[in-house]
Amino acid sequence: METPRRSCVGWVKETHVFTSINPATGTPGARYPELTKDEVEQRVARAHDAFLAWRETDYATRTDLLEKIAEQFDANAERLAEIATREMGKTLKSSLAEVQKCAGGFRHYAQNGPAMLESRTFDTAAGKATARWLPMGPVLAVMPWNFPYWQVVRFLAPTIMAGNVGLLKHASLTQGVAAAIEEMVIAAGAPAGVFQNLAIKSDKVADLIADDRIVAVTLTGSEGAGMQVAEAAGRALKKVVLELGGSDPFIVMPSADIDRAAETAVKARIQNTGQSCICAKRMIVHADVYDDFLAKFSAGMKAVTAGDPMDGATDMGPLSSEEQRQTVVDQLAQIQAAGGKLLFGGEALAGKGAYMSAGILVDVPIDDPVAQEELFGPVAMVFKADDIDAAIRLANDVPFGLGSSVWTNDPHERERFERDVAAGMTAVNAMLASAPEAPFGGIKRSGHGRELGPYGLHEFMNLKTVFG
């Protein structure tokens, strides 16, 4: 007997209107109505039908679409960047760089995707066996506001190349960005249903995951959101990729170039106003260079200017919302109550907008729960380590394992860090960043699975073995 299809249309709840709030001014902007259950059903059905056709397209058709989407991002870069800056507060120059990076991400999979999908043939005792990469179906993406274009492209470009189709549930703060991405894909000539934006609240996600027509889910977000999505995916026995929080260590050893390490540490902490999972959040410095590094790092952090994100001279815009700023303020109060010392900064700035000054914490008790949390704002914790063993222990003494940055010119230290720092990624003598060519993801409570590179392309594909 055929199993009844589980559908996403079971919810009976009032719809909602998403309102963009400019975090630099507190001014309300565009309004986006939440989709009704019937509208969501129509989009899921369209995605299912689109997949049945898109899965049969040749690689040239897929790469041509990716190239055309990249052209749309290039042609509309300024407008797209302004939308992101108005919705979540990152500087305009940062938003523009993100849009340009997205165009590069689409082109990367257009140029390299076919080679990543090549079949491999093996000789076995039973004869020839061929491993083929085949698409699976509609993939649901639940994405955050902090890199509102790039986070989506990290899933969307490989989805299209794989022959899958995508459905996006974006953050409430960045519904304008979500609509703009859909606009770019449609303008590039994508068949209806290959990519669709779902303007819905988070409480609808579990129903979507349970729908038989959706084959997998990818989420970038908080631990709490990750646990909810993983639980729903587990109940439905569906593949899930999670990229969650991070409290990345930035380790500085005596052999490092201290001037360059301190300068880079500032950039690594305040990028995106400290609202990045791979921001350097915990500076772990060898005792022999601790004072020198702290003095230089402090000077750099004090020089950071927070201001109008539309102004090209601004170093750092506001946090994404008043609520996000208050979360950071509350965390800082808890850390200080536990014995940590705020050297300077970390203050909510007066006036309009969710602005905060860059700051540094020292003497944070490493065994206190507050030291285990992710600080999603422009304040760094600085720790002292007596030797490399202590530095590695400190680096690993958190529940996260996303990224890390290590600064050393000693090859033996480098080998120790690459091997022993518990993280999905390590940058040596550089600030950690993502790139379309390299796998991105973490371990421990930072999630599992990988985005980008060939590994990100393969995550939601059926590796089918054919004998004969």
Automatic annotation (TrEMBL):
Transmembrane segments: none annotated. It holds the Pfam family Aldedh. InterPro entries: Ald_DH/histidinol_DH (IPR016161), Ald_DH_C (IPR016163), Ald_DH_N (IPR016162), Aldehyde_DH_dom (IPR015590), ALDH_GabD1-like (IPR044148), GABD/Sad-like (IPR047110). Keywords: NADP, Oxidoreductase. It comes from the Bacteria. GO terms for molecular function: aldehyde dehydrogenase [NAD(P)+] activity; succinate-semialdehyde dehydrogenase (NAD+) activity. Residues 11-466 form the Aldehyde dehydrogenase domain. SUPFAM superfamilies: ALDH-like. Belongs to the aldehyde dehydrogenase family. This is NAD-dependent succinate-semialdehyde dehydrogenase. It comes from Sphingomonas oligophenolica.
